[in-house]
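Postdoc handover notes: sequence design on the structure in folder B. Input tokens:
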């Protein structure tokens, strides 16, 4: 049988969603997050999908591009949208969330999923096996050099 393992580097919003979608599709996922071993200077917790600048995920209105995208993500069973909707705060036409409860729940779901193995370590080189790099703008300097 073909190896159905995928590495995901970075457990921010994109990496958390990617890991979850792969896991529910039957893939084995190695999810790498360098925090708390290596801090970014912007994050304040060790949680996955931590919102660091704002608790708003943008417009939730169906006549705006961001709102249309959110509705599509809900139909596609997005983990982040499910959790965001659960911890939504009043914000007019925007989708704002309780950032601590949001990140804590995403972390708990991914940490307990049977198809996801968590590695709290810095990845310094791109693996030779199938990998999604979702480290974003706060990528470590070693991985940036490898990229």
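Designed sequence:
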């Amino acid at each position: 049988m073909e190896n159905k393992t995928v590495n995901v580097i970075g457990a921010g919003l994109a990496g958390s969603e990617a890991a979850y979608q792969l896991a529910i599709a039957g893939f084995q996922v190695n999810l790498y997050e360098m925090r708390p071993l290596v801090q970014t200077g912007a994050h304040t917790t060790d949680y996955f999908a931590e919102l660091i600048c704002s608790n708003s995920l943008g417009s939730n209105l169906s006549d705006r591009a961001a709102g249309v995208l959110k509705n599509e993500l809900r139909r596609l069973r997005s983990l982040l949208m499910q959790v965001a909707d659960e911890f939504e705060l009043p914000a007019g036409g925007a989708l704002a969330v309780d950032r601590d409860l949001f990140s804590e729940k995403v972390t708990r779901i991914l940490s307990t999923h049977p198809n996801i193995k968590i590695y709290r370590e810095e990845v310094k080189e791109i693996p030779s096996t199938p990998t999604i790099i979702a480290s974003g703008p706060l990528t470590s300097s070693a991985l940036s050099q490898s990229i």
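Context for whoever picks this up: The chain has a mean pLDDT of 91. Don't rerun without checking with the PI first.
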